[in-house]
Amino acid sequence: MNAPADDPGRVMDAGTMPVAYNARNEFEAQCVRSVLEDAGIKSVALVPGLGIFGFPLRASAPGVPVRVLPEDHSRALQVIAEARWVGRSIDWDEVDVGDVPPEVARVLGRGKSERIFARLVKSLIWIYLAAVIIGIVVPVIRALAR
Q1: Contact 104, 81 (CB under 8 A)
Q2: Strand 43-45 relative to strand 64-68: parallel, antiparallel, unpaired?
Q3: pLDDT tens digits, residue range 42-87?
Q4: What pTM did the predictor assign?
């Protein structure tokens, strides 16, 4: 594996590549990869396990490692540190992002009473489902106990 870094035919095992950043999730890992790509640094972010319904099923430590080529590791660390500094230095209260689209303003502007009503309806549905399940399970258990 002594091929130059710009060799398109270069093959490396991702497990042997150094970790430049350990992201909390795949989305964050892809954001870091985007920052590295903008700086001309090739990277990979391999999710170390499967997930079902958002729950990770992996034996390794949580997180998604972003790996880079060994010769780019120190530069990648520097690029990530600079990006974090820039991100922290932005005063988002002073940034003009333009007008809020009407559909977003409508959702954000919903009153407290609408949210309370929606929660009440959801609670009643859960109570109804629990009563139905209990109504089915209790007679079955009584029948089995005889």
Answers
A1: no
A2: antiparallel
A3: 999 887 665 555 555 555 567 889 999 999 999 999 999 999 888 8
A4: 0.53
